Amino acid sequence: MSTRRKVGLAGAVVGAVSAGAAAAAMAKRYAVGRIRLRPDLEASEPFGEIRGREVTLTTSDGVLIHAEVEGPEDAPLTVVLCHGYCLASDSWHYQRRELRGTYRLVTWDQRCHGASARAEASDCTIERLGEDLALVIEKLVPGPCVLVGHSMGGMTIMALAERRPELFDDKVRGVALISTSAGKLAELTLGLPALMSKVVHKAVPSAVSIMRKRGELVDRGREAGNDVAFLAVRHLGFGDSKNVSPTVVDFVESMIRATPSEVIADFYPALMSHDKLTALDVLNNVPTSIIVGERDWLTPPDHSRAMAAAVPTGQLTTVSNASHLVQLESPAAVNNALRELLKRVERAEP
C-alpha cells in the first residue's frame, strides 16, 4: 500500500473516531438537556444551608472531626446522623429539616469527608470510623440517643456495635440503617449486565491505584461538574429515576466532587472487605429500622433483607421507585420510617 493511501486510511480512522466521540458527546448533552428541562420542584430548596452550632473534636490519632449540634443539652433524646461514602453531613438535608424542631440533632462529617480533616490511608477503615462515632457520642451526646446511618454511615454503626456492644441499651436506644450492607459489596452488579459488571470490577482496582498515585491530577479534571458526572450520579445514586430533581443530582454531585480522589481510593478497600454481619446481633437489644430503596444498585435490597434476618426485632422498609440515595430521593418515606422508630424508642424501656 502506498504511503499516500496509508495516510488517507489513518486519516479516515481518526476522523471516524473523532466523529463517534463527538456524536457521543452530543448525545450526552442532549440527554442531560432533556432532563434539565423537566419541571424541578426542588430548584429553590436551600441545600447545604441548614446549620447548627459547630464543634471540632480530636480523635485518638489526631484527626479533627467537624460536627454540628442543634437543640438543648437536656433534650430527652438525641439523633446522631452518620453520612455515607463521598458525601457529607449536608446529605441529611431533609431529615434535619424534619427533625430539628422536635429532637436534639448531632451531625458530623466522617474523617476525610466534608469539613473534617484528612487521615493517613492506613487509618481509613470502617473500624476507625466506629471509634470516631464513639467519640462523637461521648463528647456530644449527654443522654440517650438514636443512631442513623446511610451507606458507609450504617457500616460505621455496625463497627461501633462490634467494638462497643455495651452502649446498645442504656446509651444507644435505637438504630436506623439506610441503604447499607453488612458485607459482600465486591459482588455487586451496579445495575449493569453481568459481562459489563465483570469488566467494571476488573477495571476499578487500576482506577483506584491511579486515583491514589495521581490524585491531584485527577481532581483537576473533576473541579468543574460535567455531563458525564451528572449522568453517573443519576444512574448509580438514583437508579436513573425520571422523577429525581436535577437540582438534587447536582447537589449530590457537588459533594462527591468535593471528596478528594485519594480519599475515595483510601476508603475503597475498606468498603470492599467490610463484613459485619455477626455484629448485627447487638442491634436486637434496641428498636431497629432498616430502610432501602427497591432500585438500589449499590447496596441492593437483598443486603437489607439479609440484615433484617439477622435482626429479627427490626423493621424493614422498602421504598418503592427509590435507589441508593433514598433519603434525598424519597425523603417523606424515610422521615416517616424514622418518626416511627423514634416513637418505638420513646415507648421502650431502656
UniProtKB/TrEMBL annotation:
Annotated keywords: Hydrolase, Signal
UniProt-listed InterPro entries: AB_hydrolase_1, AB_hydrolase_fold, Epox_hydrolase-like
Top-level taxon in the UniProt lineage: Bacteria
SUPFAM superfamilies, per the entry: alpha/beta-Hydrolases
GO molecular function, one term: hydrolase activity
Pfam families assigned to the protein according to its UniProt record, in alphabetical order: Abhydrolase_1
Name the UniProt record assigns to this protein: Alpha/beta fold hydrolase
Species of the source: Microtetraspora malaysiensis
